[in-house]
Request: fold
Amino acid sequence: MKNIYIVGGNGFARECYHYIQTISLTDRDIHFAGFLGHNGYGHTVDYKQLQKFYKGEVSEHKFSEDDYVVIGAGYPELRSVIYKELKERNLNFFTILIGTKLDESVEIGEANIFVPPFFPSCDIRIGNCNVFNGNVVVGHDCEIEDCNFFGPRSQVLGAVKIGSYNKFGANSILLPHCKIGNYNSISPLSAVYKGCKDCCYMHGNPAIKIGEI
Reply:
């Protein structure tokens, strides 16, 4: 039996709860164990109708070897903080992936969340702690590092390389072979042709740098 705890978050954590419930319908070894707050992020009021599942702060919780964690925060910076702290405690991470059969050439790390539906191609490498927030397409030969957030219906086309801590708005498109650095924000509906380095705020079609993060 895998006991799944969701750490931190509010609205997105509630979404994760429902995905775990969906998984448990076909996998009887999955059991939702409760919500755990993180440094004040995630309290009973944040979970609305699910308040009864709040178990306290993660820093005060004692885990067993059968316990797994899902990071219930959506933003890359906060996910990164939670991930590093839980990693230091040698906890087990649970990846949310529903209804998608991955090609054997696809490699994924831990603590990722793939909100259904997810559309991966082949020869893809995905790191740790990313969020693919529904109807996200990832093309062949893409490389994605850690703690990125992909908004609904964003598209990553073939041979794109992405660093860490980036945010991609809904309906954004990364065209083939573009390269994205770290800590960038791509606005919704933008089309990135060549890419960007670090800490850029990109907007438009073609997307251009209009500010710094």
About this structure: The radius of gyration is 17 Å.
